[in-house]
């Protein structure tokens, strides 16, 4: 019994999985705070107006708090730009609360871990108790942080209500097309970038309730694509509502992204069959198919980022070019970030992070120590497991860059719509 307990204790690390999950959550909240702060300071963009959120009840079509909590209320009156300081303050307050919980949790966890490392504990009962504490403390902290973010608030404000209502709507695969599309898309697309974090969360709870450190491959197969299935459902709803082809093309983009997950599951299944003589040949063939699907998905997604989500003209040099004048970005009056260089840097980083997976086949084709080191550091090899934490952080950073230009582009669309409506109203008044 003591040997069993000791082997399980040896799996405990100074930074267990729940704390790595918490770190990615902190990064996400910090990036969201940075987005709102930078866009408010750098530009004239009104982030609250893009989200159709206000901290003033007079800006909504209802003054009934009960109705506001249960409905999908959006602002009907233009939001004062100064209210963005309240949004920044609210995000900072949330970041401070979850950081406090995480730090206190780690301060409790670290002495327990050091006790396990320093002292050679042989008593079975104490070993079991120590193992239980080392497993449960990180998960309790993870629960408290999730509770603070999504489930509990003594004094719910407009921001907290919006987060909860959006999360509930997105988890059902719904989307508010009429008034809060940007609000819903920002959350649901961010969830796609957090799919590995979601899988890690399931893994953490799996190892608590089951006496096995091996996470079920079948459970991973079903958990990883959940955010993509949500986006597919939303694309279906948008297509049936508007009949616009772009939503069907967007649906195809997310569907293609499911392919590598299926093939990864097949590879793990074949790898476990050690008696198969043709195993290596089958695995090599499946890897080739994975590279092909990932290349198609990365290319499709990158083009979609630049052309559709960001409204930039970089891809207009391709066959669908409609204008005789090639503008890689937008007309100067439609560029709200401080410099054109910022756009090119974001495009370049988005491209690099979309194709970072290419380091793996490249390291096998080219004898370059730097490329091989980077590939092993991120994706691992036969003797070293892949660094999923680093992959997660890189993808969250890419999503942070995506959100900046996405919000800017949606703000420009909103301004253009308002100007077009004003011109139409002016023409009607002149005719009358």
Automatic annotation (TrEMBL):
It comes from the Eukaryota. The chain crosses the membrane at residues 20-39, 86-112, 124-146, 289-306, 341-362. InterPro entries: EXS_C. It is a multi-pass membrane protein. Pfam families: EXS (PF03124). Residues 211-432 form the EXS domain. It is found in: Membrane. Keywords: Membrane, Transmembrane, Transmembrane helix. GO terms for cellular component: cytoplasm; membrane. Its main location: membrane. This is Piso0_005067 protein. It comes from Pichia sorbitophila (strain ATCC MYA-4447 / BCRC 22081 / CBS 7064 / NBRC 10061 / NRRL Y-12695). The lineage of its organism: Eukaryota, Fungi, Dikarya, Ascomycota, Saccharomycotina. The gene is Piso0_005067.
């Amino acid at each position: 019994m003591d040997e069993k307990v000791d082997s399980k204790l040896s799996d405990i690390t100074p930074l267990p999985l729940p704390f790595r999950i918490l770190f990615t959550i902190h990064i996400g909240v910090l990036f969201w705070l940075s987005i709102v702060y930078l866009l408010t300071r750098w530009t004239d963009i009104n982030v609250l107006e893009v989200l159709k959120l206000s901290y003033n009840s007079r800006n909504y079509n209802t003054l009934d708090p009960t109705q506001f909590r249960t409905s999908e209320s959006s602002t009907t009156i233009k939001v004062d730009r100064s209210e963005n300081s309240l949004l920044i303050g609210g995000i900072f307050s949330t970041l401070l609360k979850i950081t406090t919980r995480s730090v206190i949790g780690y301060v409790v966890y670290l002495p327990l871990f050091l006790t396990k490392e320093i002292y050679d504990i042989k008593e079975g009962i104490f070993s079991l108790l120590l193992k239980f504490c080392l497993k449960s403390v990180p998960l309790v902290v993870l629960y408290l942080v999730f509770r603070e973010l999504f489930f509990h608030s003594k004094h719910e404000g407009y921001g907290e209500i919006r987060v909860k209502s959006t999360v509930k709507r997105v988890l059902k695969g719904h989307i508010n097309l009429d008034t809060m599309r940007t609000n819903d898309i920002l959350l649901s697309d961010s969830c796609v970038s957090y799919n590995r974090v979601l899988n890690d969360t399931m893994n953490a709870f799996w190892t608590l309730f089951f006496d096995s450190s091996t996470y079920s491959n079948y459970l991973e197969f079903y958990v990883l694509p959940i955010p993509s299935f949500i986006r597919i459902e939303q694309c279906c709803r948008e297509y049936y509502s508007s009949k616009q082809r772009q939503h069907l093309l967007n649906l195809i983009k997310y569907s293609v992204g499911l392919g590598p997950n299926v093939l990864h599951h097949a590879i793990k299944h074949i790898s476990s069959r050690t008696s198969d003589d043709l195993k290596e040949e089958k695995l090599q063939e499946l890897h080739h198919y994975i590279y092909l699907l990932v290349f198609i998905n990365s290319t499709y997604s990158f083009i979609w980022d630049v052309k559709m989500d960001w409204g930039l003209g970089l891809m207009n040099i391709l066959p669908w070019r409609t204008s005789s004048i090639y503008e890689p970005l937008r007309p100067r009056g439609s560029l709200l970030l401080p410099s054109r260089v910022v756009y090119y840097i974001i495009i370049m980083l988005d491209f690099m992070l979309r194709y970072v997976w290419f380091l793996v086949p490249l390291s096998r084709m080219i004898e370059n120590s730097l490329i091989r080191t980077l590939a092993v550091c991120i994706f691992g090899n036969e003797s070293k497991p892949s660094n999923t934490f680093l992959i997660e952080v890189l993808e969250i950073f890419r999503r942070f860059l995506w959100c900046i230009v996405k919000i800017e582009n949606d703000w420009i669309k909103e301004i253009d719509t308002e100007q077009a409506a004003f011109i139409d109203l002016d023409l009607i008044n002149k005719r009358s």
